[in-house]
Design brief:
Layout lengths: L3 E6 L5 H10 L3 E6 L2 E6 L1 H10 L5 E10 L3 H9 L13 E7 L7 H20 L12 E7 L3 E7 L21 H11 L7 E3 L6 H11 L19 H13 L9 E5 L2 H13 L6 E5 L12 E5 L7 H21 L3 E7 L4 H4 L6 E7 L2 E9 L12
Parallel strand pairs: 5-6, 8-9, 8-11, 9-10, 11-12
Antiparallel strand pairs: 1-3, 1-4, 2-3, 4-7, 6-7, 12-14, 13-14
Helix pairs in contact: 2-7, 3-4, 5-6
Length: about 375
């Protein structure tokens, strides 16, 4: 089976975690770069990366790479590809282009030129051109430009991988599933430890932790764009998927706990967990993070508190952060606590010394993942007057 050039995208800050995950999927030569990991593998590796990666956003298959000086060079590079070898003309297409330090004036024009090149090559080879569908395409083509070269890829994922098959009410989820899974990976949590989110909102962290503990592959019950490519190996895909499903554990009560003071948030979490078949695995209760007791003597706490947008919210949060620090100190000695926040005032106001600060991006929003190892009688620092 031939070796393919592949690239998996991910939220910035999770590249190293994704590299380790892809290596476990059989990826060869994984190299973390900004916004993803480039790697090599056969079709089986491509299928497993889509099926099993909790951190990747998409898995792209590289099919062409060429130098360019202008937009016409990019057109010629795209037209040189035998697109009919990769997918049928009846598949609708969408072209997306991203660039880093590219001298081209308009990415929209480059996108149009690549689309024209694909259609022109199809017309020359089979006498027809594919339709363009920007909303629900059969095949997604990605172009990446740097200062001197263009890379053309086919998207093997289709819907983004963070859209788990059980995802509901996306407006109620403040972070995407793959960012939540990546954060859990950064904490070093294992299913042998209790896991707690005391401000669980829609339950994203809880669902990801439960799925990890039960060995449920995030892509085991969804379809992928690679199924619409000419090189799709149905028998291989079914073997890969069947192996993953065979390794899943039946839902059972786990040491995965969630709490929130908002009944509406708890209701969203309950529905999301039920949709994912994880209701039995996660224990939810209504409680205020400033009053809730630790569910076990030690474990890993991960949460994403709200951050202020309006001035009134900012003032309330400035008063909340010191109380949160007091609560963690009083009730969570022995716990590793991880707080994701885009509000960098938290570090100064919480009154605890962070043992690690990891820059992450929640979409376009720059955040920090603060690690606090809570030890009774220590780790406190004086707050600014």
């Amino acid at each position: 089976m031939s070796t393919l050039g592949l690239f998996a995208t991910c939220p910035r800050g999770l590249e190293q975690a994704l590299s380790r995950e892809l290596a476990a999927c059989g990826a060869a030569k994984p190299i973390a770069v900004g916004g993803g990991v480039q790697f090599e593998g056969d079709l089986g590796v491509c299928y497993r990366a889509n099926l099993a990666s909790r951190i990747a956003s998409r898995v792209l298959l590289r099919i062409a790479h060429a130098p360019y000086a202008n937009e016409q060079d990019i057109y010629e590079a795209a037209r040189a590809v035998r697109w009919a070898d990769w997918f049928e003309v009846d598949r609708s297409i969408r072209v997306d282009v991203a660039a880093t330090r590219s001298p081209v004036r308009s990415l929209e024009f480059v996108t149009l030129r690549i689309k024209d090149a694909v259609c022109d090559r199809f017309r020359a080879d089979v006498g027809r051109r594919p339709d363009v569908d920007t909303r629900s395409p059969g095949v997604r083509i990605n172009g990446f430009l740097d200062e001197r070269s263009v890379t053309l890829c086919l998207d093997t994922s289709g819907e983004p991988l963070w859209k788990r098959s059980a995802r509901i009410e996306p407006e109620g989820a403040p972070i995407r599933e793959n960012l939540a899974a990546g954060i859990i990976a950064l904490t070093g949590w294992t299913p042998a430890e209790p896991f707690f989110d005391p401000m669980c909102g829609g339950g994203t962290f809880l669902a990801e932790a439960a799925a990890i503990a039960l060995g449920i592959a995030p892509g085991s019950r969804r379809s992928f764009a690679f199924e619409r490519l000419r090189n799709f190996d149905s028998a291989l895909w079914h073997r890969v998927r069947d192996v993953a499903r065979a390794g899943e554990l039946a839902p059972r009560p786990l040491a995965v706990y969630g709490a929130d003071r908002d009944p509406a948030a708890l209701a969203r979490a309950q529905r999301a967990l039920a949709q994912a078949g994880l209701s039995e695995a996660v224990r939810l209760r209504r409680a205020d993070v400033l009053e809730v007791a630790a569910p076990a003597p030690a474990g890993v706490l991960v949460t994403n508190p709200p951050y202020g947008v309006r001035l009134s919210e900012e003032a309330a949060l400035a008063a909340f952060y010191p109380k949160l620090g007091d609560a963690l100190k009083a009730r969570f000695a022995g716990w590793r606590c991880y707080i994701l926040s885009a509000d960098l005032r938290l570090a100064k106001l919480i009154g605890l010394k962070a043992t690690k600060r990891t820059p992450l991006f929640n979409g376009p929003l720059e955040c920090r993942l603060f690690e606090y190892r809570i030890v009774a009688g220590a780790m406190r620092r004086a707050r600014a007057p």
